[in-house]
Amino acid sequence: MQRVSRDVTARGVRMRVVEAGEGNGMPLVLIHGFLTSHLEFDEVIDELAESFYVIAPDLPGFGESEKPNPSRYSYSIETFAEAVADIIAAYGVGRACILGHALGGAVAITLAAHYAELVTRLVLVDPLSYPHPPNRKLRAPLWPGVGGLMFKQLFGRRRFRNYFKDEVFSRGFDVPWARLDLLYHQFNTPSARESAYAVLRSMLDTRPVVARVSRVRHPALVVWGRDDRIVPAAFALKLSRELANGRLELMDCGHCPHEEHPHEFTAVVREFFEGKR
């Protein structure tokens, strides 16, 4: 399946967007998680594009998108939701299905709560939602004073790789090292590290995300990995029940069902977005 990349300006920031599928298909926007980009959806984009018109942006500060200094850009979940709303408007697709993973799941909830007219259905994949302690490997960068220095200068390739191997993916999973190295390359610039650190700090308070859950009226599918060590799977049932029109799918994997079980994941998502489940 052919993919096309282009730059789109959203809220004054240049965002890299990857498209795949026929332009007259049902639009589907993919929103990635922390420290990644649209690359995290590599294993599912082509298969999803057989049924949908896929639009996969790199959020500001990540991937190939612009990385403005935090002094002039608010790296918040609300700002990201506004940027995605601008992307949908720029493509002129009217309403779209939204799939958000982790941080992207929080963005998807916020988008559906504030821009309900732009959303048809939601898939929330291990989303950042209820408050919980930061993952152990991301606690040190949050230490007062020295934490920022550690993250911006000492969070090297080995630590980056180990974070995904040990925390993001389940044990025994065949880690996609080449993709991780590309993600690290995108992260390993002063501007990208500054942006990522600002996002990391903004992710600490998820209470506004929780407050928006009850405002989401769209059909929503919560997909969660049983072995998630980033966001506890115990939240899965709670979230699916607190959504007005939610349902739940648990999968035997870690934090990234779409990477560990791409074909099973794609089948579940397709059936839901097509109204078959």
Question: Would you summarize the structure shown here?
Answer:
This protein is 40% helix and 19% strand. It is of the alpha/beta class. It has one domain: Rossmann fold (3-Layer(aba) Sandwich).
Total of DSSP H or I helical runs spanning 4+ residues: 11
Alpha-carbon distance between the two ends:
26 Å
Can you tell me the number of structural domains?
A: 1
What class, by secondary structure content?
alpha/beta
Which CATH top level class fits? Alpha Beta
Relative strand content: 15-25%
Tell me the CATH architecture.
3-Layer(aba) Sandwich
Give the name of the CATH superfamily.
Answer: Alpha/Beta hydrolase fold, catalytic domain
| Pattern of helices and strands | EEEHEHEHEHHHHHEHEHH
Question: Mean of the pLDDT scores?
Answer: 92
Which bin fits the share of residues in helices? 25-40%
Radius of gyration: 17 Å
Largest sheet: 8 strands, mixed
Q: Per CATH, what is the topology?
A: Rossmann fold
Strand order of the largest sheet: 1-2-4-3-5-6-7-8
The parts where pLDDT drops under 50 for at least 5 residues are: none
Task: Please count the beta strands (DSSP E, at least 2 residues each).
Answer: 8
Shape descriptor: globular
